[in-house]
Amino acid sequence: MELNPIQTQTIGAPVGPPMDQIDKILSSKPVLLANPGQVIDNTLYYSYSNAQLVASECVQNFGRFVQSLSNASFGSTSSVSIPNSSFLEGLTLYAELPALGANQFLPRGWLLNSIESLSFILGSSNVSQLTINSSTHAQMYMAGCETQEKRLKALRLAGEEYSAGVAQAPGTINRAQVQLQLPWSRITALCKKLPLDTSLLSNPIIIQIRLKPQNEIIGGAGFASAPNGFSVAKVYATQIDLMDKSMSLKNFMYQEPSLSYNYPFIFTQSFTIDIQNSNTTPVNTNLLTIINADLVGISFAVIDQANLTAGVGGVNALSPFNYQRVKDVLLTFNGLVFYDAPGDASELYDLQDYPGTGMIPYSVVTGGGAGPYITNPKDVRVTYMSLTRLRNTMFCDHFQNSIRISNNALNLSFVGESNNPARVFVTYYYNAVFSLRAGQSALILE
User: Fold this and answer.
1) Is the pTM higher than 0.85?
2) Which of 49, 151, 158, 239 is the least buried, fewest Cβ under 10 Å from its Cβ?
3) What confidence category does residue 304 fall into, taking pLDDT thresholds of 50, 70 and 90?
4) Each residue of 273-282: b (16+ CB within 10 Å) or e?
């Protein structure tokens, strides 16, 4: 009987996948981000040209690794250390909030909103911690949900609203869960990321989770006496283990330290600006802090500043995802049009990228102060502008025809929903690669 070549081993030969497959995964040359790669047969590893390759038998587990946050108080920072032993595919934050008192309310998606920032570093690296702030994380989360139905479910899982305004019964527990959006962890189903083989790193992956202050999480006149932290906050990992450990690239890379494994991902950068909004005339702003790298897309969300905090005495209508449906969106580069969407055309453009619409079903609190609180259903949205030829539901893999532009050259204009002071949360998306070599990781944006 003829043996499968993947299962055949020669005495004295290196263990692991066959050399004809290894040659397509590992490389001794720097990675080229301009090369879009070629999609081949896949499961666990990307090839050196950022495609996908090599089928291996493996077992997946959900939640075998669990770590509690060292400090679950609002405004605090906790570190999570992920062992460098398995393939890492996803991380979920689960939290419990004790019973609320009178004149206190929770907006929909309160756990997703509670994340001030995520910072991470892959073992020993050539860069300091990379940070994803709250608005960018939320925009990635919503973009990763391919349909309106999925966005609604994801937001409700991230924390059901509570607007009755009366004290909850003693012992009531408010529960929520959010999948953390990191290079190897995505909520999207149509554009799945391959897991990251953490055994290629010499040190654990360190993730820092910073929580927002209390008045940005809980609203109402009684927010100051509300719980000042989660009673339970844990991170659960989704991991994959090879049935045959010799199939890991670790063995080959140990024998030949010059080889590198390149893990592609989308690097994000945040930019925030406060404006005086207008629902009649275009608001113009320059997009700053752009780096010299392959820019594949831009997203932005506009929200009244009063929706972002409970305010003095809890008078504000805390609705942190009350993003406005802006109109007449125009993005130019030194006067050259990149994205022109008159009227509601940006919503039409969404239909090219999503199986459904780009709308986010939300529940908006109409006022603060004393309860009960009135909430109204509302479709909100984030505007996503793809600058590449190949579009996708989510900026989660490499694209062709990305651009490099100088800083201070992009201008964004739009017409908002209100005439109030507002905040614009902008996210830039770039092609990037983590190059893993000799147990170290290097961020490559060139």
Assistant:
1) yes
2) 49
3) very high
4) eebebbeeee
Give, to the nearest 10 degrees, the angle between helix 134-144 and helix 148-157.
130
**DSSP β-ladder status, 440-444 and 124-125:** parallel
Q: How far apart are CA 26 and CA 42, in angstroms?
A: 15
* Residue among 117, 116, 231, 223 at smallest CA distance from 162: 223
CATH of the domain at 89: 2.70.9.10
Q: Which of 108, 68, 60, 110 is nearest to 87 (CA)?
A: 60
Strand partners, 427: 270, 299
Residue with tokens 């499961």: 43
Instruction: Judge whether 239 lies within some domain.
Output: yes
Alpha carbon distance 229, 114 (integer Å) = 10
What's the number of domains the chain is made of? 1
Label residue 199 left, alpha or beta by phi (over 0 means left) and psi (-120 to 50 means alpha).
Answer: alpha
Tokens, residue 380: 């909100």
Tell me whether residue 439 is in a domain.
no
Q: What is the CA radius of gyration of the chain?
A: 23
Task: Give the pairing of strands 260-276 and 410-415.
Answer: unpaired
Phi/psi of residue 306, each to 5°?
-70, -20
pLDDT band at 194 (very low <50, low <70, confident <90, very high): confident
Peptide bond into 30 cis (omega under 30): no
**Which residues span the domain enclosing 68?**
19-433
Q: What is d(CA 240, CA 150) in angstroms, rounded to the nearest whole number?
A: 25
In a domain, 12, yes or no: no
Instruction: Establish if 440 belongs to a structural domain.
Output: no
